[in-house]
Amino acid sequence: MFISRGNCGICVLALALALTLVGTGWTQTAKPTFSPDHAILYKRAVGLLDQAEQKLKAGDLAAAKSLVKQSNSLFTLLQKEYASVLAERELSPQEDEQLAIDQKLADDTHAQADRLMATAAAQEKKAQGLEAQGRELDSKASYRQSRDGYNRAQNLYVRSELHALRNQQRIFRFLAP
Predict the structure, then answer these.
(1) Would you state the pLDDT for residue 88?
(2) Per-domain residue ranges for the chain?
(3) pTM for this entry
(4) Which pLDDT does position 23 carry in this prediction?
(5) 3-state SS string over the chain?
(6) In whole angstroms, what is the distance from residue 125 CA to residue 150 CA?
(7) pLDDT means per 10 residues in the chain (177 residues)?
(8) Of 47, 53, 39, 45, the residue nearest 74 (C-alpha)
(9) How far is CA 4 from the centre of its chain?
(10) Under a CB-based contact definition with an 8 Å cutoff, are residues 112 and 142 in contact?
(11) What is the pLDDT of residue 176?
């Protein structure tokens, strides 16, 4: 069977049109669906953050750390699920400003905790030196100061993480009902 020039042109055009339609279908990315499960994860992460803040204020550092870790893992899961949405999403100027403020607070708090940690380590070393010299009372006092410094630093590290996770809360606010 022979194809005439007229039929050949139509076949080429049809093929080009078919390839164009298929090509545009491949380049489109599937938009993630906003699952009610994701909204539940978001609410759970925010609830854990609130609980962690309360525990930290109450002085229960271990519970606050645990709650912060749980909240962080939920926000990390949401980040993986919504990576493409977050890349395209534009924040309002107020949201940008608040994110910058919280990020600065987190960074400043973390730096302060680092300084406290270094001071506590120096105090512990001093305590070891005093203990080696046989000065038990001074050594115990220095160890106590070191321990208090470590605890304050840990408290600040958790507070820093809370600031960072509050940013995640703002970023994922679109999942809130």
Answers:
(1) 81
(2) 35-175
(3) 0.73
(4) 46
(5) CCCCHHHHHHHHHHHHHHHHHHHHHHHCCCCCCCCHHHHHHHHHHHHHHHHHHHHHHHCCHHHHHHHHHHHHHHHHHHHHHCHHHHHHCCCCHHHHHHHHHHHHHHHHHHHHHHHHHHHHHHHHHHHHHHHHCCCHHHHHHHHHHHHHHHHHHHHHHHHHHHHHHHHHHHHCHHHCC
(6) 13
(7) 46 42 44 71 94 95 95 93 82 87 93 94 90 88 92 95 93 82
(8) 45
(9) 64
(10) no
(11) 78
Residue 8, token pair as written in the block: 């050949």
CA distance 33 to 119: 49
Gyration radius from the chain CA atoms: 28
Residues composing the chain: 177
Q: Which two tokens stand for residue 176?
A: 């809130």
Name the residue with tokens 């608040």: 98
